[in-house]
């Protein structure tokens, strides 16, 4: 169970949907990374659209993150305490080291994780509430919801993906992405895979 929670934390707070890319990041162009990411996001839309009406509500989009948060919140108080966060970080680091997934330098990954936790902790109280966690996890939803009605239609979602592809095509001349670069528009959208 700790392993599942650690995986959920890593996925939900990593803010890098590109983490699952099999090809090394430094050998892919930005367009290739975005193309792979958008295909994954299209599948994610289908999975998250529980009622299959072609529209994602905020509740549908947040459901997997809510499950992940509940698994990480060991004492069930609705808050990830500093101790819970410390335990989850250690478990995630151990799991990644065991799998050999730590492609970044030894000091980069812990610093990047700390920064993600600090960003999630909006009120700077050293804890992450359920609301803070959920808010951190859906920037893609806010970007896609063009009319601000709290729903993302398939057309709005497709427009977001096209915008990502278009921006990526214009940036390919910058060269391959470095492992230390932050993913463009990354968020916790991959947490739904851990929640299933």
TrEMBL record:
Residues 187-196 have a biased composition (Acidic residues). Keywords: Metal-binding, Repeat, Signal. Residues 1-22 form the signal peptide. Residues 165-185 have a biased composition (Basic and acidic residues). One of its GO terms (molecular function) is calcium ion binding. It comes from the Bacteria. SUPFAM superfamilies: EF-hand. Residues 94-130, 165-196 are annotated as: Disordered. Residues 60-95, 141-167 form the EF-hand domain. It holds the Pfam family EF-hand_5. SMART domains: EFh (SM00054). Gene3D superfamilies: EF-hand. This is EF-hand domain-containing protein.
């Amino acid at each position: 169970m700790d392993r599942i929670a650690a995986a959920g934390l890593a996925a939900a707070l990593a803010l890098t949907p590109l983490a699952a890319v099999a090809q090394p990041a430094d050998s892919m162009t930005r367009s290739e990374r975005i193309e792979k990411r958008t295909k994954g996001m299209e599948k994610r839309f289908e999975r998250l659209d529980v009622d299959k009406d072609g529209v994602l509500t905020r509740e549908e989009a947040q459901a997997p993150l809510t499950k992940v948060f509940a698994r990480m919140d060991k004492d069930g108080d609705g808050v990830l305490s500093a101790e819970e966060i410390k335990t989850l970080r250690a478990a995630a680091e151990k799991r990644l080291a065991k799998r050999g997934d730590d492609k970044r330098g030894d000091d980069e990954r812990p610093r990047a994780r700390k920064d993600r936790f600090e960003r999630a902790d909006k009120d700077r109280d050293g804890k992450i509430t359920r609301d803070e966690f959920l808010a951190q996890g859906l920037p893609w939803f806010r970007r896609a919801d063009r009319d601000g009605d709290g729903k993302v239609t398939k057309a709005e979602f497709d427009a977001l993906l096209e915008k990502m592809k278009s921006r990526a095509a214009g940036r390919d001349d910058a060269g391959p992405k470095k492992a230390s670069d932050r993913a463009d528009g990354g968020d916790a959208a991959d947490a739904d895979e851990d929640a299933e």
